[in-house]
Each structure stands twice: as structure tokens, then as C-alpha cells.
């Protein structure tokens, strides 16, 4: 269970990062974030799909039909070149802020 | 693909993408359930939230609202029809008024490149004139660098063979048709190359209307010779009907201005610098890149340069202000000239007044519709409570209700646009406006109709929507305000209509200060024929003598301005710091006797008088307020001694009760411009032919124009009749709407309080008591509305003063009559539905609900 709400924008970053390893459908994205965070982060439908729509609208990912492991027709999302660029940008932005916060925490 | 286009793509493929999203989420749930998770939340809501990211949900909501509104409207056709009709009346009146404004001020004339046309007039610190002497215009035309062309028009009347009345002729500069981009219906038009040269063959171009009336539309007319003022001229062509030129009149024919002296034998138009010369109306075409300011500066310099050659012709410090020349408005300034400050245009105050009146109609219609919507809201109470209970928020409800109003407003706008067009069209036909004035709504008028519709939707729809959505129908406050607003607005309209109607009645029953019934006015137009003052004096002496010898002629008099004629000379006298605009005239010694204008004090004018003036009683009061005016000095450019006070006689401005007059003796240069007035003993019609032939016989080159002053008077009244009719129509409609509104709200009040009435009746209340329960709540808004309306009418009618033909704008009869009509009808409108309250059966009422 998530202890707290995720910071704004973090979900986008996570989704983009998870998609870097290959096309994935919605549930898989949520699962992967959940597993990779050692069960610390849980992405609800209500947050996942609006964010995914924004990513699609931004042109960072595209959707294509595929078949799920349960044999259902479902859309797989994959990163576009623009999405890779966006991921890099967001990563460095995230690191910058992270460092800044760390610096404050350490020195204050 | 940029973000915006991607968004559009999502809009276009909404259906498919929505389905895909739904599948995604469904699979998500299945897998999550299989993994032992517990799905939370409402699928539909989650889906909608996800879709929100696309940014198009408002379209869904909006189209939902619109569909819902359309369904609602279709379900109650009666209400819809009533609403659209009311809006059509309110918006239609506004559209007609705006379309008229558009026609006069905003819409360019149907000529080539109207935006680069400027109209010039003359101005000096002491005087102004709208016509320029031809030599001045000619000088400017050949020397100006900022203007590429100067267009000149001289309006005059000529006699054409076999046509019994004189017709309007426009003598124009040879570039006139070419510059204005006119097309010929037949033959050719006047061309600068051939017709612009001195000594060219005399030619005329006929107007299409005149050609049809007088020549039966004969295609062989081109090349024929006709006689104009007895002079031979060749018809070279017929101008197309949609060419109006630079004039509101429909001229019968055009001829080159250089040939004006040929047609008007002896005319000095082309050489005469004096302000008494008929002169030319002057338009200039700006060169590309030049500004009106630059043209004005240059023309001022040119005038100064010309003044050094003609010190008497050009005024000291003369400037030539311009106004945009490509609009109908610039055609409205006729031939006026005068001393002192220019007469302010009456056009804008007139539009302001008209605008106020039509806005009032709209206010009544909107208030009415507002109460109708409120009442309908009560009927929809159930529906709305259901929507609230299934989760519709207040803002969503208001939006929904407002969408309905908006839809009604748009339908109303369309109907109003059509109605407005019909109104204007009808008025144009009624007043026989020139055919080239195109009243078909342009984009401005269409946008205006739409804007007025949306604005009225806000006015009539928002307050009821708010009230309904918040489920507070019991409050009567809004309803009462709406009643008061309707009463006030329709009260103003009715009073104004009453005033105009009374003014009309007043003009017909009282005389305007002079006797117009048995007067014949003769305009020989001697100045057009270049008569010298001495020759004109001899002509007039002969004419007077012969006319006096005719049996049935009572007296004959000379005047510079004919009564109720077109020209006007105004003079500004400054008294105690404020300007009094005075209507000036120069007349002979028999004028007052001929016109039956009483002399109240002092003496009239006598032959040989100089430096004296007879002033009207109104001017005496305005200038000397109570002191004896005799012997006092008045300064109209030159100091004059007041020798007499005459009765008020509105000779030039019949409609304006504030107009003041002054009469001066005829000056030596006047005779060529004088008009002859003949007072007959019997009916003037019987004598008109004799007078005409007598006048004609003096000089065969001169064809005098004979007119009964009575018919001029009737023509002027026609205009007043139209405006009174139009305003009465507006007032009547507003009044009927207001009465209907009252019927509606009272009927509603009765239905709301049926139970209470039943109880009271069971307890023994009398009819009067029952009625008072129902009506009490409306007496206050009605009284308040009438007070506000009356007050507003008093304030508004001040601007009307100039159109009331001498009636006071506070005329008690008009106010009392309209207010009592108002009270009676409003009472009937309230009592009629209230009767139902008396027929309430107490038993049934108590069992109700």
C-alpha cells in the first residue's frame, strides 16, 4: 500500500521509465511499478489511465494492439523517440531537484 | 504532429479511442481481480476522468446540453413559439435600428474605393459652408498633391421638354462616373477625355428611373437630342439603377459641370466666388499613402494661396475640414451655410434616441420571457429535483438551463434578423428611399443580431436559471423586479409615442406661426442663369407687378429662403457666453403681411432699411430675457439694431420648437437668389397654373419652379407621421407584451395560492379581500415601474424637443392620457386572470395536494 500520494509528475516519469524496457499494456505497467518498488508503490487505475492519456497526447508513447498473457486483445504502449527524449529530460530534471533537496537536507 | 493537432485527432476519433480505453481498463480489472486485487471505484467515472486528459469533455457536456435543450423545446412548442416571437420582436426592432445606423454610418457607399473618398467643406472662424465656389474647387483640384481627383457635384433643377415639373439634375465634374466606378445601363457615361474639355458637345446621361418613366425604356434613346431648359443636348447613355452617386436624391439626369452655363443661360457658376453662388459639393480622392490630415493641411495652404489672388472670394483663415466621404452620412449635409459655429449634426442624437427606444422594447421582451421561464421552471420542478438527486451540481444545472435560453436566443436572433430586415425594407419603401440603398443585412448586422441574442439570453435566462437551480421558486423578488422593469420600459415607450402622436395632432390643428394654406412659392433660379442683381431686380419687379395684377392674388413678397424649403442660413449670436443658433432670412417689406406673421412690437422692415433686424419673440426672450429688445444691438457677423419683434414662425425648422428666427432686409446682391411668394385669396391650386404662365412669360430662357407651400408642409408632416407611427407601433407592442407579462404572473400567483385562497374563502373572506391577496404583491412593482418609466420619459423627451413641432416635451395631456391608458389596461390585464381566484371552490381547493 502506498504510504503517501506520489508527488505530481512522478507517475509520468515512472511510466516512461518502465516503458523504456519495451512495450507493455496498462496492467503490466502498474504491476511492474509495484514490483520494482518492492511493493512500496501502487498505481491505481484512477491515476494510471489519465496519466497514460496525457503521455499519449504528448506524443511520448504510442499504442498498438497486441495479445495479453491471458489471451485478451489489449493495447500495448511503447515509447516513441520523443518519449525517450522526454524521459531523459525528466530524469535529469528529477535528479537536479533530488540533488537540490538532498543538499538542503544534508546541510541545513 | 503538434500537440494541438493530436488533440484534434483525438476529437475526430473519439468513439474508437474511447472504446479502446474501455477495453484497456476492462482487461486491467480482470487481471487485477485474477491477481487477487479489489477493484475500486466507478468504471464510468474513471473512464471519464481518463478521457478528461484529452480536453474534449466539455464538448460532450455541451452537446448533451444542446440535445437536451432541443428535446425540451420540441416538447413545448407553444412556449417555444411564444418565446421566439417575443425575442423576434425585441431583437428585430434593434436589428432594424442598427441596420439603419449601419446603412448611414458604417456601410461604405456602393462606389469604387469608398474608403479613400473625403468630403470637404469650408470653414473659417466666422462662417462655414458646405458648398465650395466652383473656382476654388477647380483651383484645389488642379494643384493638390495629396488628392488624386476632385469630384464636384452641383445639384440643380432643370426643365426637360414634355416633363411638366422641373427635375433634379446633377452637373458633375467629368471624372465623376469614372472615379466612382459607375456602369452604364445603355450607351456610355460622361468621360473625362471628351466631355471634360471646354467647348465639348452638350451631353446628358439619364438615370434609369427617369429613362423608364419618361422615355418608356426606349433603347433607341442613345444619340437622341432632347431639350433641357430649352437647350439642345444629346443623350449619350443611361446610368445603371444601382449607381447612386454622391447624393441621396435620385437625379433625373447628369451633365458635365462645364456645360452648366450652357444649360442655365448666363450662369456664372464657373467663375463666381461668392458664398451666394450655388457652388459645388466637393469630394476628394486621397492618393495612396496620403492621410486626411495631410490633405486638410495642404488644402488650407492652397486656400491661403488662392486668397492672395481673390481676397474677397476666399475667407480669411479659411480651412477645408474633411469627413469620410464614402458613407451615406456624408450625403446628409445639404446646402447649409451660416455664420458662427457649425450646426451640430442631428444624426447622432437621433440614433441615440432610436437606440434607447428599441433597447426598451428588448428589455420588455426579455423581462417578459424571464418571467415566463420562471413560471416554466416551477412546472419543471419535479424534473429538476430528480436531476439534483441523481447528482447534478448547481453549476451543471445552471449551464443546462442557460443552454436552453441560449438556444432560444439564437432562434430568436434568426427570426429577429428576418423581422428587422422586413421592418427596414418596409420603411425604405414607405419613405421612397433611393433604390441603391441596400438594406440586406451585412456581416455587421448579422453579428449584431447574434450578439443581441446572446446578451438577451444572459438577461432573460441567467437569473431564472440561477433561481431554479437553487430551487428557490417561492421568492417573488425576481418576479417583482421583472414586472417593474416591464412596466417601466413600456411606460417610457408609450409616453414617447403619446408625445409624438400629440405633436402631430398639435401641428395639424395649430398653425406653425405663419399661414401656409394659400401660398405659392416661385423659384425662378435667376442665379443659375447668371442674372446680375440689377437685371434680377428688373425681372422681379416685372414679375411682382404682373402677379399683383392677377385677379385672386392678395399680396406678393420676396424672400431669400422660401418657407419650408431646403436651404437654411444659420447665424450664431453669442449672448452671455452661450451660442444661440438662429435661422436667418432676408425678406422684403411685404413679407410679414404675406406670410401672416404678426408683428408684436416695433415695426416691420421697410424699403431701404439697412443695419436693422426683426427678431422672433423666442429670440427676443432668449437673447434679452425680459428686457425691451427694441433698439438693442445683435451681432450676426455685423451689428444690427432690433427694430421689431415678430411672432414665432418656424419657416425652416418646422419640427423644432426651440428654433428662433431673425429677418433682415434684402441686400443689394440678393435679387438673383430671391424667391417670390404669392398669397392667394382663394384656393392656391386654382391659381397655380396662371401664376406659372405669368412667371414663364417674363423671360423665355427662365423656367420657374412653382410649388404650393401647402404641399411642402404636407410632405414634412409625412415624415412626422412615419416616426409617430413607428414609435406608436413600438410602444403598442411593448405595452401588449407588458400586459401579457402581467397576465402571466398574476395567473401564476393565483395557481400558487389556490389552497390559501380556498381556506380564506371557507373562513368567509369577501371577493375584494381575495383579490387583494392576489394583486397586492404586484401593486408595488407596477407603481414603482410607472414612476421610473415616467421619470425616464421626462428625461428622455428632452432630446425629443427638436422633433415635437412646438409641443412641450412635458405636455400634460400626452402624459396623463398615456398613463391612464396604461393604468386601465394593466388593471384589466391583472384582473382578468385574478377572476379565477374568485371562482376557487373552497372544498376542492382544500382537497388539492
Care to describe what's here?
The complex is a heterodimer of chains A (108) and B (849). Chain A has 108 residues and is α+β, with helices and mostly antiparallel strands. Helices cover 56% and strands 13% of the residues of chain A. Chain A is built from four helices and two strands. Chain A has helices at residues 10-19, 26-36, 45-57, 81-107, and strands at residues 61-67, 73-79. In chain A, a hairpin with a 5-residue loop joins strand 1 and strand 2. In chain A, helix 1 packs across helix 2 and helix 1 (10-19) crosses helix 3. Chain A starts with 9 loop residues before the first helix and ends with a helix. With 849 residues, chain B is α+β, with helices and mostly antiparallel strands.
Largest sheet of chain B: 10 strands, mixed
Low-confidence stretches of chain A: none
Overall, the morphology of chain B is globular
Termini distance of chain A?
Answer: 31 Å
Structural class of chain B: alpha+beta
Rg of chain B over CA atoms, rounded to whole Å, is 35 Å
Amino acid at each position: 500500500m502506498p504510504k503517501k500520494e506520489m508527488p505530481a509528475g512522478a507517475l509520468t516519469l515512472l511510466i516512461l521509465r518502465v516503458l523504456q524496457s519495451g512495450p507493455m499494456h496498462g496492467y503490466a505497467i502498474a504491476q511492474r511499478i509495484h514490483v520494482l518498488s518492492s511493493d512500496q508503490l501502487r498505481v491505481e487505475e484512477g491515476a494510471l489511465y489519465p496519466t497514460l492519456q496525457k503521455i499519449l497526447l504528448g506524443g511520448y508513447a504510442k499504442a498498438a494492439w497486441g495479445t495479453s498473457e491471458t489471451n485478451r486483445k489489449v493495447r500495448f504502449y511503447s515509447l516513441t523517440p520523443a518519449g525517450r527524449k522526454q524521459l531523459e529530460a525528466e530524469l535529469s530534471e528529477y535528479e537536479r531537484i533530488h540533488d537540490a533537496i538532498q543538499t538542503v537536507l544534508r546541510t541545513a | 504532429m503538434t500537440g494541438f493537432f493530436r488533440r484534434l485527432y483525438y476529437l475526430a476519433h473519439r468513439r474508437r479511442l474511447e472504446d479502446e480505453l474501455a477495453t484497456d481498463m476492462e482487461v486491467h480489472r480482470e487481471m487485477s481481480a485474477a491477481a487477487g486485487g479489489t477493484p475500486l471505484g466507478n468504471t464510468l467515472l474513471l473512464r471519464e476522468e481518463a478521457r478528461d486528459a484529452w480536453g474534449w469533455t466539455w464538448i460532450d457536456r455541451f452537446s448533451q446540453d444542446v440535445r437536451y435543450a432541443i428535446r425540451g423545446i420540441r416538447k413545448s412548442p407553444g412556449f417555444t413559439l411564444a418565446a421566439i416571437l417575443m425575442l423576434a420582436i425585441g431583437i428585430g426592432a434593434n436589428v432594424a435600428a442598427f441596420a439603419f445606423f449601419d446603412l448611414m454610418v458604417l456601410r461604405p457607399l456602393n462606389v469604387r474605393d469608398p474608403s479613400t473618398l473625403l468630403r470637404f467643406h469650408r470653414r473659417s472662424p466666422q462662417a462655414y459652408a458646405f458648398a465650395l465656389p466652383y473656382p476654388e474647387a477647380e483651383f484645389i483640384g488642379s494643384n493638390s498633391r495629396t488628392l488624386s481627383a476632385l469630384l464636384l457635384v452641383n445639384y440643380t433643377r432643370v426643365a426637360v421638354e414634355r416633363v411638366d415639373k422641373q427635375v433634379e439634375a446633377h452637373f458633375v465634374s467629368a471624372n465623376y462616373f469614372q472615379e466612382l466606378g459607375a456602369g452604364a445601363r445603355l450607351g456610355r457615361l460622361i468621360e473625362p477625355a471628351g466631355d471634360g474639355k471646354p467647348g465639348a458637345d452638350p451631353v446628358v446621361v439619364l438615370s434609369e428611373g427617369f429613362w423608364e418613366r419618361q422615355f418608356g425604356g426606349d433603347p433607341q434613346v442613345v444619340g437622341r437630342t432632347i431639350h433641357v431648359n430649352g437647350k439642345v443636348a444629346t443623350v449619350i447613355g443611361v446610368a445603371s439603377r444601382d449607381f447612386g452617386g454622391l447624393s441621396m436624391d435620385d437625379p433625373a439626369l447628369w451633365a458635365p459641370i462645364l456645360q452648366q452655363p450652357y444649360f442655365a443661360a448666363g450662369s456664372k457658376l464657373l467663375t463666381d466666388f461668392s458664398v451666394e453662388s450655388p457652388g459645388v459639393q466637393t469630394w476628394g480622392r486621397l492618393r495612396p499613402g496620403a492621410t486626411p490630415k495631410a490633405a486638410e493641411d495642404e488644402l488650407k495652404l492652397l486656400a491661403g494661396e488662392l486668397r492672395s489672388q481673390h481676397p474677397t472670394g476666399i475667407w480669411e483663415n479659411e480651412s477645408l475640414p474633411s469627413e469620410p466621404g464614402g458613407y451615406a452620412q456624408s450625403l446628409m449635409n445639404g446646402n447649409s451655410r451660416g455664420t458662427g459655429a457649425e450646426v451640430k449634426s442631428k444624426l447622432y442624437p437621433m440614433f441615440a434616441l432610436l437606440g434607447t427606444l428599441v433597447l426598451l422594447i428588448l428589455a420588455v421582451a426579455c423581462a417578459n420571457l424571464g418571467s415566463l421561464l420562471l413560471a416554466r421552471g416551477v412546472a419543471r420542478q419535479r424534473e429538476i429535483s430528480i436531476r439534483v438527486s441523481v447528482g447534478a451540481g448547481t453549476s451543471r444545472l445552471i449551464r443546462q438551463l442557460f443552454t436552453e435560453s441560449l438556444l432560444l436566443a439564437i432562434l430568436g436572433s434568426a427570426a429577429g434578423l428576418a423581422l428587422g430586415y422586413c421592418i427596414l425594407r418596409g420603411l425604405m419603401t414607405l419613405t421612397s428611399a433611393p433604390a441603391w440603398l441596400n438594406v440586406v443585412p451585412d456581416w455587421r448586422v448579422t453579428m449584431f443580431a447574434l450578439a443581441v441574442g446572446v446578451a438577451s439570453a444572459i438577461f432573460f435566462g441567467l437569473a431564472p436559471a440561477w433561481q431554479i437551480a437553487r430551487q428557490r421558486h417561492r421568492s417573488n423578488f425576481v418576479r417583482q423586479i421583472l414586472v417593474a422593469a416591464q412596466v417601466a420600459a413600456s411606460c417610457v415607450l408609450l409616453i414617447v409615442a403619446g408625445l409624438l402622436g400629440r405633436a402631430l395632432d398639435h401641428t395639424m390643428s395649430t398653425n406653425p406661426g405663419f399661414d401656409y394654406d394659400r401660398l405659392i412659392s416661385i423659384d425662378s433660379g435667376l442665379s443659375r442663369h447668371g442674372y446680375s442683381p440689377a437685371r434680377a431686380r428688373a425681372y422681379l419687379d416685372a414679375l411682382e407687378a404682373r402677379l399683383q395684377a392677377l385677379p385672386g392674388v392678395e399680396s406678393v413678397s420676396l424672400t431669400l429662403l422660401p418657407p419650408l424649403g431646403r436651404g437654411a442660413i444659420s447665424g450664431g449670436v453669442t449672448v452671455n457666453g452661450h451660442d444661440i443658433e438662429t435661422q436667418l432670412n432676408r425678406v422684403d417689406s411685404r413679407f410679414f403681411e404675406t406670410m401672416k406673421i404678426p408683428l408684436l412690437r416695433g415695426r416691420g422692415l421697410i424699403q431701404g432699411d439697412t443695419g436693422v433686424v426683426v427678431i422672433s419673440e423666442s429670440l427676443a426672450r432668449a437673447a434679452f430675457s425680459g428686457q425691451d429688445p427694441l433698439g438693442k444691438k445683435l451681432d450676426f457677423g455685423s451689428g444690427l439694431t432690433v427694430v421689431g419683434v415678430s411672432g414665432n414662425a418656424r419657416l425652416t425648422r418646422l419640427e423644432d420648437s426651440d428654433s428662433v428666427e431673425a429677418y433682415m432686409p434684402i441686400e443689394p446682391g440678393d435679387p438673383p437668389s430671391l424667391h417670390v411668394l404669392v398669397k392667394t385669396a382663394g384656393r392656391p391650386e386654382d391659381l397655380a397654373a396662371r401664376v406659372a404662365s405669368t412667371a414663364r412669360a417674363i423671360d423665355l430662357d427662365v423656367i420657374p419652379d412653382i410649388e404650393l407651400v401647402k404641399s411642402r408642409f404636407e410632405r414634412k408632416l409625412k415624415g412626422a407621421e412615419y416616426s409617430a407611427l413607428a414609435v406608436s407601433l413600438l410602444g403598442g407592442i411593448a405595452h401588449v407584451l407588458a400586459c401579457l407579462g402581467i397576465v402571466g404572473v398574476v395567473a401564476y400567483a393565483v395557481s400558487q395560492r389556490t389552497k390559501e385562497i380556498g381556506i380564506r374563502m371557507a373562513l368567509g373572506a369577501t371577493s375584494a379581500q381575495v383579490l387583494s391577496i392576489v394583486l397586492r404583491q404586484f401593486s408595488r412593482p407596477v407603481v414603482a415601474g410607472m414612476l421610473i418609466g415616467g421619470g425616464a420619459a421626462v428625461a428622455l423627451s428632452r432630446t425629443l424637443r427638436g422633433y415635437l413641432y412646438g409641443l412641450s416635451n412635458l405636455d400634460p395631456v400626452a402624459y396623463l392620457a398615456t398613463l391612464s391608458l396604461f393604468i386601465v389596461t394593466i388593471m384589466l390585464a391583472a384582473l382578468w386572470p385574478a377572476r379565477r381566484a374568485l371562482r376557487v371552490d373552497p372544498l376542492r381547493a382544500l382537497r388539492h395536494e
